[in-house]
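hi! just following up on the protien thing from before. the input was this:
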Amino acid sequence: MKYIVSILFLGLSLGQISAQSITLEGAILGQGSVYRPMTYQGIQWIGDSQDKAYFSNYYSEIHRLKPGSKDPEKIITLADIKQSCDDEIAHLWGTEFKDNQTAIIHTKSAYYEYNFEDKKATKILGFPANAENKTLNGNLLAYTLKNNLYLADAGHTKIPVTKFRDKNIVSGQAIARSEFGITGGIFWSPSGKHLAFYQKNEKEVADYPLLDITATPGELKSIKYPMAGQKSENARIGIYNIETKSTIYLKVEGDMEQYLTNFAWGPNEAFVYVAIVNRDQDHMQLVQFNASTGAMNNILFEEKHPKYVEPENPAWFIPGKDDQFIWMSERDGFMHLYLYNTEGKQLKQLTSGKWVVKQILGTDNKNKNVIIETTDESGLNTVARSVNLKSGKSIVISKGEGVHHFDLNPNGIHMIDEYSNVETPGVQRVIDTKGKLIEPLITAKSPFKPGEIGTTELVTLKAGDDGTPLHARMIKPANFDPGKKYPVLVYVYGGPHAQMVTNSWLGGASLWMHYMANKGYIIWTLDNRGSANRGRDFENIIHRQLGTVEMEDQLVGVKFLKAQDYVDDTKMAVHGWSFGGFMTTSLMLRKAGTFKVGVAGGPVTDWKYYEIMYGERYMDRPEQNKEGYADASLLNHADKLEGDLLLIHGTVDDVVVMQHNLSLVKAFVDNGILVDFFPYPNHPHNVRGKDRVHLYKKVLTYIEDKLNH
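and the predicted 3d structure came back as:
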């Protein structure tokens, strides 16, 4: 349910782009371009060489950086590619490097191997222009058209893997509404001889109508939307043999409504591994299946928790060891690594501590150490660690506080390390897997003129329980005067799987917040309990009572703000989207009088209207938690509104369906209470493009008008 901002990116150019005075339009559309710190955009390794590549000129050029060189070489341009092929291509985004001189480039309907040394392109294969979920493996491509799965090779563009006429049977797409870390539904085997895929039967899932107003008359377009407590999809996993053109399905035992998550191929392709979670999401089994017959071979281990378990990462096999893999689990309270063999025996817990493993980057060149990206103990910073597979000894190998992102070279020796913090716009460098600095690449300057934006301060408060640290971000105007009184805008998200406050450039804030600050506001954001990257107990305290603990923590922030001499506590507003819309409306109704104005975008207003996988994890089923659903339902608190509230919703929102907002408006009408409502026609859960400027004009103008009347 995370709210995603659509921004435009620009690669490094020879001259620094000059930033203009910040306007709202510039803040919304220019954060990733005019106001982006000038580092190498999309930097990546070229094969296993020491050369790096990056994009520039709106992804129309790719440049190469050789070690120690400050003179980048242009190696691929959009014009070159257009001369080499007849297919439509608008940009080079998504280009990857097959080896040290060959790039894989995709057009609207084909993949090409482009040798950038001799400027020649060779077509690998073609595919239909409307193909989706494209997953390339060498000279084979798997993709979906509508609800079926297809292959393409050098001679054919449309080889059917599935042929279901029933639109309720969907193959090759993400299942479980992309929960449990599921991002796709196609899984090539290591050799490319087999193709595994998710398949879901949505026959028993309710159809949900969305109105398309572009037709005359308007048309209803239905989506499948399983609401909490109702019937869910039934999932299975197929394995297609490329040579025999036959498919077997895993013989999964148990309830058809259980979740099949975190699929992984074993290195020798004899077995596949699936984390199976029951519908109540309090029990997980990691199951080994025979990849040839589909038979269940062994339950390797299981995890249980009275609240919920949430596997999000598949088994990760140790290179060169077909019988050992790493499993990521929160079983000790934080996401850590556990080493297992394929018989299901835990060999050791590899990492421990009050920090979170975010991802496995790979191993060093001798496969003796696994390289991982983690948080630090505060949760505000990320670091790289090297973990010895034999001893379990863990060391931090990155230097510099901030939020780091790493790209490990395929040779397992060097890494690109790019990071920023509140004081540092951006740094890119090369380090080795022992932490030694190999090569500084670039240190970006601020894209803002002196005094153009205000200050960003990170604040740590204590929750009202046992003093759990809560991180917050305060943005002050560029011309801040401590002797003045400033109105406050609180921007809130507050839900799981999201972290708003980090030690990164601008503190993780959107630039429109600085625009608003410069109009004479204090902008405040606090990550309450329930937010990401602070461990299991920090998150799951919200179980069965969404909104309750989160509001308690938000009020800790409000108390802090009111204690500041420069805050005008008679003029406080709150705004958020999605879970943040739920939080905004909750604060306006369940903590009435705290804020004078609220603007809630795409809010959940009653969790019984939200989808099964997410909703039942955090709230259980409605019949299992009647009191919790009733307390969290904003429909039951509509009579408590004090102040002004604007509700916003995209009319074709398929994440938080508009029934949420319309039901709340109906509750206000029933109680004789006036509120404001604004729809964004034909927009889904996020309002993007030029309409996003309109959205924030609406949001911020409403806040200013209502705070000052």
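The chain has ten helices and 43 strands.
The mean pLDDT is 95.
cheers
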